[in-house]
């Protein structure tokens, strides 16, 4: 009888072990509240815009006006926005972050994919999304170097890389059809250079 009881307990243990759910992936100590869209709207866009607009040349009837950080506080503001832009890359990569709130629709449905489509693309190739976020972060190093050197020309030149990093990601996830159309037109121009 004792052998039968041990066999029964062992069988129940095996059955329980086989049907148990795998443990949930730890989310760390952080709490996810914002969506990717929120981070883009509140950190990436303002951070990159501030950097782009910090150095400019305006030509008008009054002449040429040069804009660049001059005071320690102005340079500090550029640095703050660069740090914000860098850290936004980390926030974008946090596991469990949604592209947008449930029910949110694309603001430009003729051009952009819907949030659930974007999320499917990101989920299908998480490594590529990670690479794009890291590429954005890599563009911040020249900005910080320009800030440390208080070099407006280098700061201006660093802005192009930020724009390219953003656009590369958007072409893959936000408006991939536009990227395909651009590639098609480029191939046609290369195949028929006389039509240009």
Superfamily (CATH H level) name: Cytochrome c/b562
CATH top level class name? Mainly Alpha
Element string (H = helix, E = strand): HHEEHHHHHH
**General shape:** globular
User: What is the helix tally?
Assistant: 8
Strand content: 5-15%
* Spans where pLDDT lies below 50 across 5 or more residues: 1-25
Assign a percent range to the helix content: 55-70%
- Rg: 25 Å
Per DSSP E runs of 2 or more residues, the count of β-strands stands at: 2
First-last Cα distance: 92 Å
Fold-level CATH name: Four Helix Bundle (Hemerythrin (Met), subunit A)
Strand order of the largest sheet: 1-2
Sheet bearing the most strands, described? 2 strands, antiparallel
Number of structurally distinct domains: 1
CATH architecture: Up-down Bundle
- Report mean pLDDT, rounded to a whole number: 84
Overall structural class, as computed from helix and strand content, comes to mainly alpha
């Amino acid at each position: 009888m004792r052998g039968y009881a041990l066999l029964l307990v062992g069988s129940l243990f095996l059955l329980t072990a086989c049907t148990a759910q795998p443990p949930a992936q730890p989310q760390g100590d952080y709490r996810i509240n914002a969506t990717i869209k929120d981070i883009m709207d509140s950190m990436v866009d303002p951070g990159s815009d501030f950097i782009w607009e910090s150095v400019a040349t305006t030509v008008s009837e009054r002449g040429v006006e040069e804009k660049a950080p001059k005071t320690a506080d102005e340079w500090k503001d550029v640095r703050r926005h660069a740090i914000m832009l860098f850290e936004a890359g980390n926030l974008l990569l946090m596991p469990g972050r949604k592209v947008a709130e449930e029910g949110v629709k694309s603001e430009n449905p003729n051009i952009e994919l819907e949030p659930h489509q974007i999320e499917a693309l990101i989920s299908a190739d998480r490594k590529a999304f990670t690479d794009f976020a890291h590429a954005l972060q890599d563009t911040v190093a020249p900005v910080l170097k320009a800030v440390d050197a208080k070099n407006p020309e280098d700061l201006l030149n660093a802005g192009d890389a930020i724009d390219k990093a953003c656009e590369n990601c958007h072409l893959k996830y936000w408006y991939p059809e536009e990227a395909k159309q651009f590639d098609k037109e480029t191939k046609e121009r290369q195949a028929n250079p006389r039509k240009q």
